[in-house]
Design goal:
Nucleotidyltransferase, domain 5; Dna Ligase, domain 1; 2 domains; globular
Length: 316
């Protein structure tokens, strides 16, 4: 049963992303029905090695530096939020897609079944994990679920960096999943199969969606532009051979400014796929009122955090 509005906890209106090289904070106002306004955003650089994403090792190696960067971001926003949404690197968690022909009616039984399915695949014990899941595509073969699994102590490292500034993370999301929410909120023709390429200096993530449903997710560490092209090629082959793909209707890019999509590496990727790549940008329902500059070539830094906030505003 859904609670009436006056009994629900309002979603956070500030999100912060802790990335290997920077901290990005975004503040919004409004809801999904009345329109969302970006009231502020900030980017603070991190010293090299302050955050080293990993599934199994310490991630936040210099917590004081990370907390200081977050505090400076709050100063730029002109507020000290008590509750925030937190975004962490893709490399800090493992994303799986599992399918069940029959779904247990009880939520507790479904959770146990999901944990049983992922138990052997992760390089750490499921008992030491934080596991979240959401339904994805449903077909004649069964119901798919997107499962995100991370070591509990690693997520705590990121949360503690926020808590040191007085901000309590109300939820945690992966950067590419936040980026995908920005793409979905922007609307447009995202009803067929589409590919999201999220490439940054520390690695790349490729995600395939069917409409709003995630059907493929793969992250790889940084190995140069040529490796990104090969990763895209491998993903396209898997899409055709294993997912019955008939071609991507759109290719969206994150982590790269719109101007960067004309580089030789990106032109080669677009030629391989036969589809023009487009940068993920906020949709027409998002009003940019922030006094901070919001240039197209820097917008890509804020889209994961903004996407997470847009999804929360739509739910709220």
């Amino acid at each position: 049963m859904k609670l009436p509005p006056f009994l629900r906890t309002p979603p956070p209106h500030v999100a912060v992303e802790i990335a290997p090289t920077r901290v990005v904070a975004v503040a919004v106002s409004g809801t999904g029905t009345s329109g969302v306004k970006v009231t502020g955003w900030a980017v603070e650089s991190l010293p090299a090695g302050a955050v080293v994403p990993s599934l199994t090792a310490v991630n936040v190696t210099r917590p004081a530096d990370v907390s200081a960067a977050i505090a400076r971001a709050w100063d730029q926003l002109g507020q000290r939020p008590k509750r925030v949404a937190l975004i962490v690197p893709d490399a800090a968690a493992r994303v799986s897609l599992v399918r069940f022909q029959a779904v247990p009616p009880k939520a507790s039984d479904l959770e146990e079944l999901i944990k049983f399915q992922i138990r052997k695949a992760a390089p750490f014990r499921v008992e030491d994990s934080q596991v979240s899941y959401a339904p994805s595509e449903r077909s004649a073969d069964g119901q798919d679920y997107v499962v995100v699994q991370a070591r509990r102590d690693i997520i705590t490292e990121y949360e503690q960096a926020c808590l040191a500034t007085g901000a309590t993370p109300g939820m945690v999301e992966l950067t590419t999943l936040g980026l995908s929410q920005c793409a979905l909120a922007a609307g447009g023709d995202l009803t067929g199969d589409w590919l999201l390429i999220h490439a940054r200096a520390d690695g790349a993530t490729l995600a395939i969606f069917r409409g709003r449903h995630l059907v493929f997710f793969r992250h790889r560490g940084a190995e140069g532009d040529g490796h990104l092209g090969e990763l895209v090629h491998q993903t396209a082959m898997y899409y055709q051979d294993r997912l019955g793909g008939r071609g991507f209707s759109r290719v969206l890019a994150g982590g790269t400014p719109a101007s960067g999509l004309t580089s030789p590496a990106w032109l080669d990727i677009q030629a391989r796929l036969g589809v023009r790549a487009e940068a993920v940008e906020p949709g027409p329902g998002v009003t940019l009122t922030s006094p901070a500059p919001w240039a197209p070539d820097t917008m890509e830094m804020a889209t994961p955090a903004l996407g997470l906030l847009l999804s929360l505003c739509a739910e709220g």
